[in-house]
Every structure is written in C-alpha cells, then in structure tokens.
Amino acid sequence: MKNAEISKRRDAAISVGVGMQTQIYVERASGSEVWDVEGRRYIDFAAGIAVVNTGHCHPKVMAAVRTQTEAFTHTCHQVLPYENYIRLAERLNEKVPGDFAKKTVFVTTGAEAVENAIKIARAATRRPAIIAFGGAFHGRTFMGMSLTGKVAPYKKNFGAMMPDVYHVPFPIELHGTSTEDTLSGIQKLFKADLDPDRVAAIIVEPVQGEGGFYPAPAELMRALRALCDEYGILMIADEIQTGFARTGNLFAMEGYDVVPDLTTMAKGLAGGLPLAAVTGRAEIMDAAQPGGLGGTYGGNPLGIAAANAVLDVIEEEDLCNRANALGSRLKQRLNEIRSRVPEIVDVRGPGFMIAAEFNTADGSAPNPEMANAIRAEALERGLVLLTCGVYGNVIRFLAPLTIPDEVFAEAMDILEASIDAVKGA
C-alpha cells in the first residue's frame, strides 16, 4: 500500500471536517518512532497530541491491557463495577494537587471531562455562568466549543454557542496583554455584563494548548484563586494536555502555589487508550445526584488498566525529571538557533511542553507560513511536528518522555536542518 492511495480512499470516505496535519498512514509504532505503510520511519514529536507521554506501546502498559483483555473488556461500571476503577480513582485522589478529601469520576474524552466539570460546578454552586479565556481550547462538544476561545475552525458555521459563557483575554506579554489587563477585563465584565454571584466557575489551562503553549503566569493563578474565594466561584484547572509528567510535574498545577477545586484530565492518562477524568473536592464532586454523571464507556476496563500502568511507569522511570531534562536541552538548542534566526521570537514552556513562536523577520506580524514550512520540511526529513496558536505561528514539541537520548539528538539535528532549509529558501 501507498500513502497516496490510502489518502484518496480517505477523501472519499471521511468527512473533510476531520482535519489532517499529515498524509502519513501509520503501520506500527514503538517508543518515540513510527513507521508508515511504505516502511518509512519517523521520529514522533507529536505523541498523539500529548497522549503517549510514556511512548508508543510501552511494554508495561501493553502488558496491563493484554491481561485485562483476557479477563473482560466491558461491563459498564454503573452495572457491574470492577476494583481497578476504584484503585485508579484512589490514586488520582491522592496525586491531584490539593490537601483535602477528593473524589473522581471517569469518562471517555477530554471534552467529556470538561462537560462534566461544568455540570458538577453548576450543581454544586446552583449558578449558571462560566468564565473562560481567549485562546483557550476545551473541546469540540457544544459546551467545549463555547468555552474555547478561538472561532476558526472550532466554532465556525456551527450556530449559536451555549449561553452564560464569557471570555476574557489571556495574559500573553509577547502580544501586549498583561495579567493586569486580564484581571481588569474580569472586573469590567462584572461591572457591565455579569453579576459575579451568578458565576459557577472559572476554567483555565495552566499552559494554553491549542492556543499557543502560553504558560499562565503565577500571579494570574493567585489572583484567580483569590477572586474565586471572594465570590464563591469554583476554579477548574484543565490539565488535559498538561497532565501526566508533560510539564515536569505530574500535574502542571503543582508548579503554582494555589490549587483548583476541580481538575480535568485525559490525553496522557491512559497511554493511548480513551480515558478521561474529573477529580475534585469531595463535597463538590458529590453535588450531582446518582445517575447525573457517568456514561456507558466511562472508565472502560482497558483504559483503567492502562492508566494504572501509566502511573507506575511515570514513577518508576522518573518521567517528571526526564521531562525537565529533555525540555532544558530542547530550549538550549532552540535558543542557539534563535541567535541567528530572528523569526524565532520566543522559546517557552515548562518541562517538555515547549514551543517556538515565529514572526516576520522585522517582528511586526505572526509568521504562520514559516512555521508551517518548517513543519512540512521536517516531515520530509522524518520528524513529525505540530503547529498551534491563534495565528498558527507556533511549533509545539510533544515527543514521548521516554524518547532515547540518541533519537532525541537525531531529532534536534533534523529540526535545525529544517529551519535552516526554510530560512535559506
């Protein structure tokens, strides 16, 4: 089979609404490498968009899934429950930031985790309104779209969004928006459009993902926590892309001196199997009545088994420290390249959740053309990269945390050669 042949079949069979960043059809994957149907090898710096933090087909994760498959694959936890679901909840209740009693609910996708966090917040506060941020991404369901702070492609042509969702600017110093601007925006919102006593929750990504890999400033997190405490608002941390060692901590919120009331997670939780969760203060999590939360596939046994193995691997292989080490090396290499490529205007991110932002050479405007050209050049040379950002001018780096040093070094050489090729074009 050839990639081009499969691509033609794809065009005839699959909705164009499912966007594609490559036309590389994978046949097998291992660790930080993938091979396509034509036998060509690629180094994967996407990791399924921060899903396989422990690497493709990690032996311990695969062994756990095989063992579970031989026992049973589905019963629906609400009908016939199983112990490892409870064990994973206990582990997350212990590991999610916050020195208070917690409870957990399992669902299937990140968008579903966000939906349930909003449901729980509304049930606990008896309030309807939610505040989110410009540039945020929280999913493609109607509530997820409504919370997301980017129109195209996520909201375009899908009609009216959910009511009682409000956006304020996210602080990005590079773009001229400070934490003070954000907080002023919230106060203006409270004065002009929204009674704070109607707000159930503020939802924030510790590092904006699709929005451009912008870390939330510590002063913003402290101010949001104080604001929530003042008005009885719940603070929701969307850790769907930041969780499970990606940022150098198991959860990115460990890097702040405040904690949220509710935490959403998915992606890296189950090492490639669909599993998501909401963990939060026990009394808040119990606000929903029995039957109000859950789902037929929520907490599927295979995903639960994989997630318990993922937590073991993160601990046993010290992947939080590994993320910090890899991220430091990547930043150093990018900054060396930046010294002679003025289009790179910023290199940022905690742990191994790193981004490089590209502007025009004079710094006057975003440069999505260059970012995309580098992505395409790298792909031709065997390195899979992703772009992101409201302007599409950011390259994000999300390799598995288990990537061997020699493969990482090879990827760095490909990256530099790709930037030089585009710069010299």
From TrEMBL:
Enzyme Commission number: 2.6.1.19
Name this polypeptide is given: 4-aminobutyrate--2-oxoglutarate transaminase
SUPFAM superfamilies: PLP-dependent transferases
Assigned keywords, A-Z: Aminotransferase, Pyridoxal phosphate, Transferase
Upper lineage: Bacteria, Pseudomonadati, Pseudomonadota, Alphaproteobacteria, Rhodobacterales
One GO molecular-function entry: 4-aminobutyrate:2-oxoglutarate transaminase activity
InterPro entries found in the cross-reference section: 4NH2But_aminotransferase_bac, Aminotrans_3, Aminotrans_3_PPA_site, Class-III_PLP-dep_AT, PyrdxlP-dep_Trfase, PyrdxlP-dep_Trfase_major, PyrdxlP-dep_Trfase_small
Species of origin: Thioclava arctica
Family classification: Belongs to the class-III pyridoxal-phosphate-dependent aminotransferase family.
